[in-house]
Write a structure and sequence with these properties.
Blueprint: H1 2-15, H2 17-38, E1 39-52, E2 57-62, E3 66-74, H3 75-80, H4 84-87, E4 91-95, E5 104-108, E6 114-115, E7 120-127, E8 130-150, E9 157-164, E10 167-173, H5 174-178, E11 183-189, E12 197-202, E13 213-215, E14 218-226, E15 230-242, E16 247-253, E17 256-263, H6 265-270, E18 277-281, E19 289-298, E20 305-310, E21 313-320
Parallel strand pairs: 1-4, 8-11, 15-18
Antiparallel strand pairs: 1-3, 2-8, 3-7, 4-6, 5-8, 8-10, 9-14, 10-13, 12-14, 15-17, 16-21, 17-20, 18-19, 19-21
Length: 322
């Protein structure tokens, strides 16, 4: 009798394939039902978007910089997405289809482009639904840095402001890199300065310049203040432009500026207006354009004075000679 019962059970559980298949299906459905009950969705704002390009190609512009992504996961995993440190590695990596360093692309944003997420799964991108970007040839150039400051020392006279290093390496789309004549630092406050000092300051990335890489990203600015120095202002100095061969200057506005000069009284007394040259560095322009360019004041050799043009930029219209 017992042998017959055992034989029946073996037939039921080991030989009847339909029952085994149904058992597996029920187990799977149960597992997914339990998993679904224990998971939840969460919306994460401002996930950064990066355009993936081939070597030698850079992103000139893109319609959006971040997107809103919906993730699904356990309650613990989705709650951790609110932690900035955990969310930091997550980004949306969009592959550029074009292999040419020019042209405009429009790519739909898909959950599969989300990278860096752990223990959660991106299920959709709420906004925006797509991204438009323009590519350009990549360029590398060493560009001078100028320290920006405001206010006046509490005592003494500002003599000079220098940056170390005085040039940094910029990598990015050629149209943007070629248009940069000088990079500016974050503003430094001199209102409470009483003596010479040095400070590390970040370099500002020009707005609308695409994906620029600046190395190093900061410089050391040295502010030299002397207590026996004096200052002088010379007005109506004409502005000249430095241009590439084959380029012509159509107009400079304003055509003349003022220059504030500071330093020792002896050096200032010897200085004549004709010793100064105010130049707009337009050497980065190689096509017809009208843009603002920074001014530099050139002093005679071996003259230890500090000179700043006011205004610090002029608008120059350039055209090709042909």
């Amino acid at each position: 009798m017992k042998n017959n019962e055992k034989t029946g059970l073996n037939k039921l559980f080991f030989k009847d394939k339909r029952i085994k298949l149904m058992s597996f299906l029920l187990a799977g459905l149960t597992w997914y039902a339990v998993k679904g009950a224990m998971s939840q969705s969460t919306v994460v704002l401002d996930i950064p978007i990066r355009i993936q390009t081939r070597d030698g190609v850079a992103v000139l512009s893109q319609s959006v910089r971040s997107a809103t992504v919906v993730f699904r996961g356990s309650q613990e995993a989705t709650a951790q997405l609110q932690d900035i440190a955990i969310r930091a590695p997550i980004e949306i990596t969009v592959p550029a289809k074009s292999r040419k360093p020019s042209g405009v692309e429009k790519v739909p944003l898909r959950p599969r482009y989300v990278t860096g997420a752990r223990d959660v799964r991106p299920i959709r991108i709420n906004h925006p639904s797509d991204i438009v970007f323009q590519l350009d040839e990549e360029a590398i150039k060493d560009i001078p840095v100028r320290a920006v400051y405001f206010g006046r020392p509490a005592s003494g006279q500002l003599v000079s402001v220098t940056c170390d290093p005085d040039k940094v390496r910029v990598r990015g789309p050629r149209q943007s890199v070629d248009a940069i004549g000088v990079l500016l630092t974050e503003k430094m406050d001199l209102d409470f300065a009483v003596d010479t000092f040095s400070s590390a300051v970040q370099i500002n990335t020009p707005s609308g310049s695409g994906s620029l890489s600046i190395t190093p990203s900061s410089v050391t600015a040295t502010i030299v203040i002397e207590h026996d120095a004096t200052s002088r202002r010379i007005s109506d100095l004409p502005v000249s432009a430095i241009v590439k061969p084959g380029m012509l200057v159509s107009s400079i506005k304003p055509a003349a500026v003022s220059v504030a000069i500071s330093g020792s009284k002896r050096a200032l007394d010897k200085l004549q207006a004709g010793d100064l040259r105010v130049l707009a560095d337009c050497g980065s322009a190689s096509r017809d354009t009208e843009a603002e360019f920074p001014l530099t004041v050139h002093l005679p050799p071996d003259v230890e004075l500090f000179a700043v043009a006011d205004p610090g930029k002029v608008r120059v219209q350039l055209r090709r000679a042909d």
